[in-house]
Amino acid sequence: MHLPYHESDHVLTLAYSVLTGGTRLEDVDRLRNDVPLMNGLGARLLPDPTTTGDFLRRFTEADIVALMDAINSVRPALWRGRGAGLLGEVAYLDVDGTIVPTMGELKQGMDISYKGIWGYAPLLVTLANTREVLYLVNRPGNAPSHLDAATWIDRAVDLVAPYAQRVCVRGDTDFSLTTNFDQWAQRVDFVLGTGTTNVQAKVRDVLRKIETELKGETMSGVLALVSPEFFDKLIGHAKVEDAYKYFSSTGAQPLREDTRRRFPFAGIVFEEYNATVTLSTGATETLVAAGEGVAFPIGTLDTFVTYGAPANLIETVNSIGLPMYARQLARPDGSAIEVKTEASILPVNKRPRLAVKIHSSN
Q: 349 φ, ψ to 5°?
């Protein structure tokens, strides 16, 4: 027995409580009053719930994160050794939120969930291959599953990526964090602001990334849709300028004509793409960010697919969507026939890693 208690006494008391079914601090008293258990532990005294609570309140969020990082710093040694076979070619990161009810009424951070349960909604990021919990983040009970998930997914990807050929992040539709998909995609920095950059080598890097991810799929070529800023830097680069200037073998005349639409270079066709869309708020959004672009294969068989949603009609409920719906509606007075058309199209890239983000950092 240590008086005052050592930190190890508090940690072991909490561990003993959890292992024997404890779910709250008050359950520590069960251990203190269990004579056979105390004899088995060889202890005459354990911290009471109040003392244990004081110990836990010493720690901040930063301390908990430091503890998780300390544990995670040991994992790579296992993944390089005996655990290498468990990771395999693809490391699967599972991300999910859960609901943990609490018996208290005034606990800090607790809130009511969408199921009407008071408590917390922790986020779990686990490595499915080895069933390891990499990160556990506590959040209020009313937090949606995706809240702050991107931050912890990034940390988990950085942790696991060096020890697997690929990292696959899995989660339900609430984790469709489209604003973060670009940063999780494969990327190549063309460094077009540096005159000595080997642009052909950058192009080959893009081609190899795409070819590696084809996995038996076929393609007829690679198209890169780039922003005006990227296109201007590309054709103005010292290693590309002559190729663009004498792009006449295909019948184009860059000095006379606008050839921004199709400029082939080293195996990729670059096309300036400056399209925008109008959002429901009325604001406009550029589809390709300034200074960036996306390269993807064309002529594939099973990579890109387009789905049509059912029309907004009673008769189409629970039916398979069609690309286009058209109906003829006769006016009650018989003076005319109105034609109503509707299409809700969703294009999907079934292999996101085949789309390589390209940009120039300078």
A: -95, 110
